[in-house]
Structure formats: structure tokens, C-alpha cells
Design a protein that fits this description.
Largest interface: A-B, 40 and 36 residues
Largest sheet of chain B: none
CATH class of the largest domain in chain A: Mainly Alpha
Shape of chain B: globular
Order of helices and strands of chain B: HHHHHHHHHHHHHHHHHHHH
Structural class of chain A: mainly alpha
Oligomer: heterodimer
Strand content of chain B: under 5%
Number of strands of chain A: 2
Strand content of chain A: under 5%
Number of domains of chain A: 4
Radius of gyration of chain B: 22 Å
Distance between the termini of chain B: 55 Å
Number of helices of chain B: 20
Distance between the termini of chain A: 17 Å
CATH superfamily of the largest domain in chain A: Annexin
Largest sheet of chain A: 2 strands, antiparallel
Helix content of chain A: 55-70%
Order of helices and strands of chain A: HHHEEHHHHHHHHHHHHHHHHH
């Protein structure tokens, strides 16, 4: 087992001080990959030149130049290290910003961030967005997305869902009926429906799960079986109801040998953003195994090479 | 984003922090609250309040002399001290002892700001106490972080989110306006993009000319832009098109949607004007709207009541506390006048 680096050495490694001498990458992978998120917080606080403390919003953000520098320094890690060292809120804010810039095909990433994070983490991502981009996530999305998807996407990122365990069954049932009628609409009409947007963007996840049960009874079909023509609606439902299924599907897509460059990057994103939540990561790995026969670890071992592979495997092993 | 030298990043960040610190919600210079220089310990206050409830009848003057002269932080400590000493929530005791308008003003005042707003918001979504103005006030005049505290207090107390209740109890254009107003977490910075202000003022004017008052983009601008940006946009609108936007939104004076839209715009830009109007209408010759009066006084005393008083004096040529005293009586009047800063300390 590789020895672990101390805080100072990690900071040095990131600063590129030891250019030419190289950095003990195996040790770096092992140390960072196994690090608890509080250790990384200490690292960010210790690296004042690279991370700036946003006291009011309670997180440490990465200077843009530093991000560029890190990407070069750690290019062999395909961004994984860079994303891993950032505060989760900053990570998510940057994912959303990038998705917004890339346009249409990437809107599912916005759905992913909005629907799979906890209420406080989504709020945190919105705070980080203020800090990084001097505007709110809501206004950026609202002004850059037009057409039928705007309402739902703005609604989803604006959510601050109740996370307690109280659910009103009669309300879940009536919402299920409304959804059942609406999803049958062709094309993107379903997401233009105010009631659909209301239900998906304001109800608690527990409420939506209750709704799911009623829907399947009322409609006879599975709400998660691609009931709607709208891909964004289907993604939102899957993310809200069964995130581990959603993540295992996109991991499978990104590990496919015919995947394009953009899709391959999903691997990094899912691993880095979910690895801190070991329960979730475990569920994702189990779901993946059930669906595709192989284990995630096996597949990564076969298809990925080098330090990047080792880093991913380290992150994966954290959840076991 | 552009390449900015590291030392400049730090400088801008510091400057911004300074301005943000100045713009706090609980602003001592604009509050009308009068607090004695030597405030008794919370335990002492709790004991006095307990004495005020003891025996036959209630010593309302004592209650006012204490509670109407303590900040929200101090009131919170008194509540804790009271609970520790007498094993009862102070609010429960007040509920038992007091009644009618006096009870309502004391109860609302004693709650901490987030709890108070959550209570008012819940009330405003219920059938018999339906009041969309309250939602507009809460969504538009509280700073974004305080609005978030309201949402947290709402969830803790009512086991659902404010957003889902607002969404469920509204429909059509009203929901289109109110839901994003309560949901958006607006950027709080002072930065203004003048080019954007011009282009969005133009867009607003186009929609207004077409009478498309609930157009998607029209609502988008009002419900997602930062207050600073919106201020700049509306100033530009005024300069460019000869009138403040609200003058162009008076199409139908009975239309509730337009009324709320105008109120939202005023609340986002000049809250003291909105509150002056609510007070003026509440204290008119034909009787008093005590709930509106109580709401404005309890929610603004610690925030910007001095500004509201100035505005009221300017428009009505009499001081607010005189108008209130003329229109109310008894303990209710005493409590209001004390909160307005003109009671005996």
C-alpha cells in the first residue's frame, strides 16, 4: 500500500513546486482518494493562494486560474483530481454553468444536479453560483433557455424541498391522477403543463415516491418506463425516484467503447460527485451489477488505464 | 471568465464583503424600536412577565414595557429563560392571558422574524384568511438569506415546503408570479450590467405595450434578477419611456394580478412606499384594518420603520403614530405606539 502524503506535500504537489521532480502519484491518489471530505476542507483552507474563503456562504472556492493550472498539472487524471478537491457546492455550480454553455444536449446535467442532491446541497450549489458567477443560477438558466424546457428547469433548480417524513396520501393520489393525464401528451407538451411543473418542482421526494405507487396503480404502466415523449421529464422522474438507476445507466453509457468524448467524462462526474455519499455509491454499484452483469470495478479495470483508473478505483473502494 | 491577477480578486472580494455587511436585514439605524441602555437579564424579564400574568387580570402595561423594548435576539433569550424557569412556552402563556388585537400584536412581535413570516405565510394560504399581499411582501422585501430562513422555519413547523403550499393554493397567472417570487434565491451583490439593464427595460416595455402582463420573459426578469439589477433596469425604463413601469400597469384597477404585480415591483425597489400605502389604507376613515396594521408594524419595526414613518409623514402630513393613536385604543394602541418608538421607555 502506498504511503500517505502529509498536508504540506499535497499543497506542494498542487502548486507545481516540484516541477521536474514529479510528484509521487501513487501516494497522491491514495491520499486524496481515501480522504474524508473534512480533510479536503483542511487542504482547501491551507491553500490560501488557490482557494478563497467565502465566509458568508461557508465554502472555499477555487480561483479560475488555479483551475486552469490544475487541469494542466493533473491532465493524466482527466479532471478527476481537480473536481475532487473542490467543494461539492462549487463542483455542482460549475457543472450547471458548463451545461448551460454547451446547450441543449447537456440539459440533463442540470436535471441531475437539481434532482439528485439534498435540499441543502442544492441550496449550497446556488450560493456557490452567486459567488462564482455574480448572478443566481435561476436567472442564468431562465435567461439562456427558451421554449418549453425553461419552466421545468428553472422550477427544478429553484426547489427547496421538504425532507421530513410526513406525507399526505390523498394529495399524493390526486397529484398522481394529474400526472397520469398529463404525461400522455405528445412531444414536450407535458412539461409545458403548469401542474406537472408544480408537482415535480415543489413536492418532497417522499411525496413523489408515494405518487409513484399510486400512478402505477391508476395507469397500469410504470411511471419510470419512459411514459413521456419528453426526455427531460423522464430524466427528472428517474433522478427524483431512483437516482441509483439513473447513475448506473449513465455510467454504462460512458463506459461503452463507442462513447464520445463528452459521454466518457460522465464517468468522472458521477464518481467524484457521488463518492462522498458512500451509501449512494454502494447502491449505484449494486444496481450496476444487477443491470449489466459485471461489477463496476471489473468494468473500470478492463476499460480504463493508468492513474485515472487507480483514482476511480480508490474512490469506489471508499464506499465498501 | 477573464484572467484577473490574484491580488485584484482579493480586493474586489473585500469590497463586496463590506457592502454586504452594511446591507443587513435587521438594521439598527432604520429601526424604530427603542431599547433601554441597561437591559435587564433575560431571567429578570421572564420573572417580571410571569408576575404580569399572575393573579386576577393581566398587567398589560408591564408586558408592553418589556417586550416592546427588546430586540429579536433579546426576546429569544427571554423565551428560553421563561421556558427554563416556568416549564411553559412564553407564547402559550401570552395566548392564555391576552385576547383580540392586543394578543395578536404581542404574539406576532414576540416570535422571531423567520417564525413570524412562516406563520403569516401559512395563514395567507388558508381559505378564510387568504391574502396574497402577505406572500408578495415576504418574498420581495426580505433579503434572500432571510427568505431562506423563513422557508426553513415553515418546513420545521408545518412539515411541508412553502413552495408546495403556494403552488397548490394558487393557479394561472397568480401562480406564475407568486411561485417564482417565493422560490428564487436572488443574487445579493451590487453589480449591475448596464447593457442588460437597457435590453431588459426594452423587453419589459415591449410586453407592457402589448399588454402581455404575464408574459414568460416579463415574469422571468421580475422574479429572477437581483434587486440591484432590477433597480437599474426599472430606472432605465423610467428614463427611457417617460414613466415608472407601475404607471403603465394600471390597465384595470380591479385586476388582482395587476395589483400584486405592482406591489411586487414596489416591494422590490422601494419597500417603504409599499408599506406606507398599506398603512394608509389600513388607517383610513372608514374603520381600521387591524391585521394589516399589526402585520406592518411587527414586521418592519426592526427593519425600516423609520423610513416608513418619514414616507408616511411626507404623504399624509401627520406623523404615523398620531394617525395610529387616533384610530386605535387601549392596550393595542399602546403596543403599536411603543413599537413605533413613541411609547414610554
Amino acid at each position: 500500500m502506498a504511503h500517505t502524503l502529509d498536508l504540506e506535500s499535497i499543497v506542494d504537489a498542487f502548486s507545481g513546486k516540484n516541477v521536474g521532480m514529479g510528484v509521487d502519484e501513487k501516494a497522491l491518489i491514495s491520499t486524496l482518494g481515501n480522504s474524508h471530505k473534512d480533510h479536503r476542507k483542511l487542504f482547501r483552507k491551507a491553500s490560501k493562494g488557490f482557494f478563497e474563503e467565502d465566509e458568508e456562504r461557508a465554502f472555499e472556492k477555487c480561483h479560475d486560474q488555479f483551475v486552469k493550472h490544475l487541469k494542466l498539472e493533473f491532465s493524466r487524471f482527466n479532471n478527476a483530481v481537480v473536481m475532487w478537491s473542490m467543494h461539492p457546492w462549487e463542483r455542482d455550480a460549475r457543472v450547471v454553468k458548463k451545461a448551460l454553455k454547451k446547450g441543449d444536449e447537456c440539459y440533463s446535467l442540470i436535471v441531475e444536479v437539481a434532482c439528485t442532491r439534498s435540499s441543502d446541497d442544492l441550496l449550497g450549489a446556488r450560493k456557490a453560483y452567486h459567488s462564482l458567477f455574480d448572478q443566481s443560477m435561476e436567472e442564468d438558466i431562465a435567461s439562456n433557455i427558451h421554449g418549453s424546457r425553461r419552466k421545468l428547469l428553472v422550477g427544478l433548480v429553484s426547489a427547496y424541498r421538504y425532507e421530513g417524513n410526513k406525507v399526505k396520501d390523498d394529495l399524493a393520489k390526486s397529484d398522481a391522477k394529474i400526472l397520469a393525464e398529463a404525461v400522455a401528451s405528445p412531444g414536450e407538451k407535458a412539461i409545458e403543463n403548469d401542474e406537472v411543473v408544480r408537482i415535480l418542482s415543489t413536492r418532497s421526494k417522499l411525496h413523489i415516491q408515494q405518487l409513484y405507487k399510486h400512478f402505477n396503480q391508476i395507469n397500469g404502466s410504470d411511471l419510470l418506463g419512459g411514459v413521456s415523449d419528453s426526455s427531460i421529464l423522464n430524466d427528472a422522474l428517474l433522478c427524483l425516484l431512483k437516482p441509483s438507476v439513473y447513475f448506473s445507466k449513465i455510467l454504462n453509457a460512458s463506459l461503452n467503447k463507442d462513447a464520445d468524448k463528452g459521454t466518457k467524462k460522465w464517468l468522472t462526474r458521477v464518481f467524484v460527485t457521488r463518492a462522498d455519499h458512500s451509501d449512494e455509491m454502494k447502491e449505484i454499484a449494486e444496481e450496476y451489477n444487477q443491470r449489466y452483469g459485471e461489477t463496476l470495478a471489473q468494468n473500470i479495470q478492463e476499460k480504463i488505464r493508468g492513474n485515472y483508473r487507480d483514482f476511480l478505483l480508490t474512490l469506489l473502494s471508499k464506499s465498501n | 471568465s477573464e484572467d484577473v491577477p490574484l491580488h485584484c480578486i482579493h480586493y474586489n472580494y473585500r469590497q463586496r464583503k463590506e457592502r454586504e455587511r452594511e446591507r443587513s436585514s435587521l438594521n439598527p439605524t432604520m429601526a424604530s424600536l427603542k431599547v433601554p441602555t441597561n437591559v435587564p437579564l433575560p431571567e429578570e424579564d421572564a420573572e417580571q412577565l410571569h408576575k404580569a400574568f399572575a393573579g386576577w387580570g393581566t398587567n398589560e402595561k408591564l408586558i408592553i414595557s418589556i417586550l416592546a423594548h427588546r430586540t429579536s435576539a433579546q426576546r429569544s433569550l427571554i423565551r428560553s429563560a421563561y421556558a427554563a424557569a416556568y416549564n411553559e412556552d412564553l407564547l402559550k402563556a401570552l395566548d392564555k392571558e391576552l385576547s383580540s388585537d392586543f394578543e395578536r400584536v404581542v404574539m406576532l412581535w414576540t416570535l422571531d422574524p423567520a417564525e413570524r413570516d412562516a406563520f403569516l405565510a401559512k395563514e395567507s394560504t388558508k381559505m378564510f384568511t387568504k391574502n396574497n399581499w402577505v406572500l408578495v411582501e415576504i418574498a420581495c422585501t426580505r433579503c434572500p438569506l432571510d427568505l431562506f430562513k423563513v422557508k426553513q422555519a415553515y418546513q420545521a413547523r408545518y412539515k411541508k415546503s412553502l413552495e408546495e403550499d403556494v403552488a397548490q393554493h394558487t393557479s394561472g397567472d397568480l401562480r406564475k408570479l407568486l411561485l417564482p417570487l417565493v422560490s428564487t434565491f436572488r443574487y445579493e451583490g451590487d453589480e449591475v450590467n448596464m447593457r442588460l439593464a437597457r435590453s431588459e427595460a426594452k423587453l419589459l416595455h415591449e410586453k407592457v405595450s402589448e399588454k402581455a402582463f404575464s408574459d414568460d420573459d416579463f415574469i422571468r426578469i421580475l422574479t429572477t434578477r437581483s434587486k440591484a439589477q432590477l433597480g437599474a433596469t426599472l430606472n432605465h425604463y423610467n428614463n427611457e419611456y417617460g414613466n415608472a413601469i407601475n404607471k403603465h400597469l394600471k390597465e384595470d384597477s380591479d385586476d388582482e394580478y395587476l395589483k400584486l404585480l405592482r406591489a411586487a415591483i414596489t416591494c422590490l425597489t422601494y419597500p417603504e412606499k409599499h408599506f406606507e400605502k398599506v398603512l394608509r389604507l389600513a388607517i383610513n376613515k372608514m374603520g381600521t384594518d387591524e391585521w394589516a396594521l399589526t402585520r406592518v408594524v411587527t414586521t418592519r419595526t426592526e427593519v425600516d420603520m423609520e423610513r416608513i414613518k418619514e414616507e408616511y409623514q411626507r404623504r399624509n402630513s401627520i406623523p404615523l403614530h398620531h394617525a395610529v393613536a387616533k384610530d386605535t385604543s387601549g392596550d393595542y394602541e399602546d403596543m403599536l405606539v411603543s413599537l413605533l418608538g413613541h411609547g414610554d421607555v
